[in-house]
Amino acid sequence: MTTNKNGLAYQRILLKLSGEALAGEEGLGISPDRATDIAQRVKQVHEMGVDVAIVIGAGNLWRGRTGLNAGMDRATADYMGMLATVMNALALMDAFERINLMTRVQSAIEMRSVAEPYIRRRAIRHLEKNRVVIFGGGTGNPFFSTDTAAALRAMEIGADVLIKATKVDGVYDKDPNQHVEAKKFEHLSYIDTLNRRLEVMDSTAISLCMENKLPILVVNLWDEKALAKALLGEKVGTLVDEG
Ligand code: UDP
C-alpha cells in the first residue's frame, strides 16, 4: 500500500462508530468510560496527523426498527433514532475535550443550542484546523441508517477511506463468535459484499461507496493498535473496494 509524505496510507478518514461502541456492559445506554476509551484511540490517530471525522449511530439508545416492530410510524421512530445519535455525539465530544482533543459536533437536524448545523464547507474547515468533527443526526432523513450517513459524509468531506469500527477484527463468512470455523476475508469487492449479503454495512451504504469508489476498511475498534496500523498501510481488518 502506498503512503503519503507523512507516511500515512490515508490522510483523511471518516470513522463510523455504532452506538453500541458507547454502551455499557449490557449493550445499552452511554458509558462515559467507553467514551474515554474511544477518545484515546481517536487521539492516537489524530496525533499521527490524520484528519478525523466521525459518524456515530444510536443502537445503544434507540433504533427505528424497534418502534416499527411495536406498531409505531416508521418515520417518527427513525427521527427518534436520529435524535439519539446527537446524544451520543455529545457524549463523545465531552470525552474528547476532556483529553484536549478539539472537537465540533454538527447535526443534520438543526438544534443550534447544542450543535452546529451540518455545513459541509465548515466541516472541512474544522478538519483543516485540526479539529475532530462528529456528525450527529444521521443523514437527517428517515428510512436511512447511520452507515449510509457515514458513506455520504465521507464523500462530502473528501475522506480517503470509510473506517467501520466493529467488535471483531474484520469481515467473516459466518459470525466468528458462534462458529469456530468462520473464515476471515482480508479483501472483498463491493459487489461480492453485496451479493453474499455480508454484514459489513447495509446495502444502501455499500452501493454509495461502490458508485463513488470509496474504500471501506473494517477494523476492530478495541484492538489498541489496529487503527494506527491501518493508517500506516499495514494489512489489518478487511478492505472492501473494487477488488
Ligand atoms: N436513522 C435514520 N436516518 C439516518 C440515520 C439513522 O432514520 O440517516 C435512525 C434509524 O431509525 C436508526 C437509528 O437512527 O435505526 C439509529 O441509527 P443506526 O441504527 O444506524 O445506529 P447504529 O446501528 O450504527 O448504532
Core attributes:
single chain, 243 residues, alpha/beta, Carbamate kinase, 9-stranded mixed sheet, two-stranded antiparallel ribbon, binds uridine-5'-diphosphate, allosteric enzyme, UMP kinase activity, Uridylate kinase
Give the amount of beta strand, in percent. 15-25%
Which structural class do you get from the secondary structure elements?
alpha/beta
Distance between the termini: 14 Å
CATH topology of the domain at 12-166 and 202-216: Carbamate kinase
CATH superfamily of the domain at 12-166 and 202-216: Acetylglutamate kinase-like
State the low-pLDDT regions, or none: none
**Mean pLDDT score:** 96
CATH class of the domain at 12-166 and 202-216: Alpha Beta
Number of helices: 8
The Rg value, from CA coordinates, equals 17 Å
Order of helices and strands: EHEHHEEHEHEEEEHHEHE
Cross-sheet strand order for the largest sheet: 4-3-5-2-1-6-10-11-9
Major sheet, described briefly? 9 strands, mixed
Please estimate the helix content: 25-40%
Bound molecules: uridine-5'-diphosphate
Known CATH architecture of the domain at 12-166 and 202-216 = 3-Layer(aba) Sandwich
Number of strands: 11
Give the oligomer, counting copies of the same chain as homo and different chains as hetero. Answer: single chain
Shape annotation:
globular
Main location: cytoplasm
Region (Involved in allosteric activation by GTP): 24-29
Pathway: Pyrimidine metabolism; CTP biosynthesis via de novo pathway; UDP from UMP (UMPK route): step 1/1
Family: Belongs to the UMP kinase family.
